[in-house]
Write a structure and sequence with these properties.
The complex is a heterodimer.
Chain A: H1 15-50, H2 52-59, H3 64-90, H4 93-123, H5 139-169, H6 179-204
Chain B: H1 3-32, H2 39-58, H3 66-90
Helix pairs in contact in B: 1-2
The chains are: A mainly alpha, B mainly alpha.
């Protein structure tokens, strides 16, 4: 497989080094994200382990249709982001821009679906607190995790929309030489997708009949 | 667009995406199979498989410098300490 000659920017000596530097920096940042979400997942693991019966009763209320639709939407946005990133590196500017726009549209779709899901959850009294649907221990822990994790994820996605949209502000002529910007952007976007892909079985597939 | 470019830019990511969609369908169906065994384990394993597809192919870890592959493991290694120490306490109380 022959890679195309990628454009070299200051201060790098070779395009390979430039690419490694960008990826290394972003991966270190993503490591802090793994720790951040790791803390949340730890809460989930301990709660599910200690109060598994109540935890499962609570988890059964999560709406699998919203969750599955959003998983498909987000994985497709990762596809468009991956094509957009590769197209930027190859200098295929129209394709890259189209894919970036598709990524933004899919990301926004995810948030809209999430909004409808939140409305349905609130109507079903699934917010831990005085009006919460269940008294059994564990159910409220599941929903505390649900709200915290999905809201934090939605914030990450919103930040991602901002970062991805930045690629559209780079002029058509300059875009190919900003290929490492596209790589860094795509890495972050894919991480947001990975977090969701792990959240999906934890939130939507527990205690199904 | 040359066939080689098309393969690299469009078709390869498309194949990864198809794999992700198949795994999503499998995991959702398995969760609803009556009396299917080890459901939590299967759903988590498929979730990890999807995450691996994204990391290896979309995030291009499969063919990358060792430094990058090592850096990509760092967060998971640190997070695993968090889990190991917590459960070492919880399971031995």
């Amino acid at each position: 497989m022959t890679q195309p000659p990628a454009i070299l920017n200051e201060p790098w000596r070779t395009p390979e080094r430039q690419q490694v530097a960008m990826q290394f920096g972003i991966w270190l940042f993503l490591a802090t994200e793994a720790l951040f979400f790791g803390g949340l997942f730890l809460f989930y693991a301990v709660s599910r382990f200690t109060d598994s019966a109540g935890f499962e009763i609570g988890a059964r209320e999560a709406d699998i249709w919203f969750g599955t639709a959003n998983t498909a939407v987000l994985m497709t946005s990762s596809l468009t982001m991956a094509i957009g990133e590769r197209a930027t590196k190859e200098g295929l500017v129209p394709l890259a821009r189209l894919m970036v726009m598709a990524t933004l549209a899919l990301g926004a779709t995810f948030l809209v679906v999430k909004g409808f899901e939140y409305r349905s959850d609130i109507e079903k009294h699934l917010v831990p607190g005085p009006a919460f649907k269940y008294a059994i221990r564990g159910a409220a822990q599941f929903w505390a995790f649900y709200w915290t994790a999905t809201v934090v994820h939605a914030i990450h996605l919103t930040v991602g929309l901002g970062i991805v949209s930045r690629l559209l502000f780079i002029s058509k002529e300059d875009l190919p030489e900003r290929w490492t910007t596209a790589i860094g952007t795509a890495l972050y976007w894919h991480l947001v997708d990975i977090v969701w892909v792990i959240l999906y079985p934890l939130l939507y597939l527990v205690g199904r009949p | 667009m040359k066939p080689e470019t098309r393969r690299r830019v469009i078709l390869a990511p498309l194949a990864t995406w198809a794999g992700l969609m198949v795994l999503l369908a499998v995991t959702a169906l398995y969760a609803y199979l009556p009396s299917a065994p080890i459901k939590p384990e299967v759903s988590l394993a498929i979730g990890i498989a999807k995450a691996l597809l994204i990391a290896l192919f979309f995030m291009q870890l499969r063919k990358n410098a060792s430094l990058i592959r090592l850096a990509s493991m760092a967060g998971l290694v640190w997070a695993s300490f968090l889990f190991m120490l917590t459960f070492a306490d919880l399971l031995t109380r």
